[in-house]
Structures are given as C-alpha cells and as structure tokens.
Give the backbone structure.
Amino acid sequence: MRNDVLKLCKRHELADMIYMRADGQFTKRRVEVISVGVNTFIAYCYLRKEKRMFKIDRILSIQRVVYKESTAM
C-alpha cells in the first residue's frame, strides 16, 4: 500500500480512499498526498478541508481519481 501512496505523491494525483479510523469506523475520503513517511503520510483531506496525517496500515483501499472529458456540446 505504501508504494501506491508514494506513486500518488510523486504524480500529484487525487485519490479516493477507504480508511479505517482509530475507533474502527470506515470513512471514504478524497485526498491529495503531500508527503510519505515510513508508516504515515500527510495529505490534504477534502472531507475535512485540511491537511491530515493518516496511517498507511489503516488504508483499506486507495485509487487515483480518473477524470474523463465530456465530448457532448
């Protein structure tokens, strides 16, 4: 999972993440990874609208956000 987070950070990509909070509840968050440590990473969380620290081992799923352009006019 750490490698996925590192790739997102290097490419400056947004990601949708399913994360387990400390109390065991699951949350879905859109994040932009800023920096990656050994066990944690700092990201801007669009749910909380601030920079937050996340533990890598609590990530259940993380996937980059893919934008598709509309061809309709």
Notes: The beta strands are 14-20, 26-36, 40-45, 50-55, 59-64.
